[in-house]
Design a protein that fits this description.
alpha/beta; Rossmann fold; 6-stranded parallel β-sheet; globular
Length: about 190
């Protein structure tokens, strides 16, 4: 298998050990993984702290940082991936990159512009069920809009898991759900 070139974005907690561990897991499977630090070294202990950092930096600046991080690698065709807030960043970049090879969303999605196109873009979403940040109505609407944009979407729901259930340092940690997520996600990457 030729490994994918993956751009992996962190959550509102910042670039924490769980993100680095995920990158190592992907590297061990043969992928080249880039992990930009959109918060430039800052991390949060709570969601509220993370949201405050995100608000302080601002949406436009965070997107600018993400685009600059991806730009040197985008010609090769990136798979975009991210956790929660990072998933929304990954989705935004993937939908704006006609060379994107795929999109792996962990714990989050983002709004989709009416004009968005994602012709046959392979997309996989792993999400807690229920998720406090991603309601069932929102996810149904998101799924339909991604399909309308042309994406090939798979959604995996994890009943009873907390929002960021793949991070062993957070109260949301759910080891069985996390291991199933990684098994399915690695198979998805291998299929591309």
């Amino acid at each position: 298998m030729d490994g994918m070139d993956i751009m992996l974005f962190h959550s509102t907690y910042g670039l924490r050990p769980a993100v680095e561990a995920a990158a190592e897991r992907l590297r061990a499977a043969g992928h080249l993984v880039h992990v930009p630090d959109l918060f430039e070294g800052r991390t949060a202990e709570t969601v509220e702290e993370g949201m405050a950092i995100k608000e302080e930096i601002g949406k436009d600046e965070l997107l600018r940082r993400a685009i600059l991080a991806a730009a040197p690698y985008s010609e090769r065709g990136l798979l975009y991936a991210g956790f929660s807030f990072g998933a929304s960043v990954a989705q935004t970049l993937a939908l704006g990159d006609d060379k994107a090879r795929g999109l792996l969303l962990l714990h989050g999605t983002s709004d989709i512009a009416e004009s968005a196109t994602a012709d046959d873009l392979p997309v996989q979403l792993h999400i807690a069920d229920p998720d406090p940040f991603e309601s069932h109505d929102w996810l149904t609407s998101w799924y339909l809009r991604m399909g309308k944009a042309g994406a090939d979407v798979e959604v995996y729901r994890y009943p009873g898991a907390g929002h960021l259930y793949t991070d062993p340092e957070l109260p949301d940690w759910d080891e069985p759900a996390a291991e199933r997520t990684w098994a399915v996600a690695l198979a998805f990457l291998e299929s591309l």
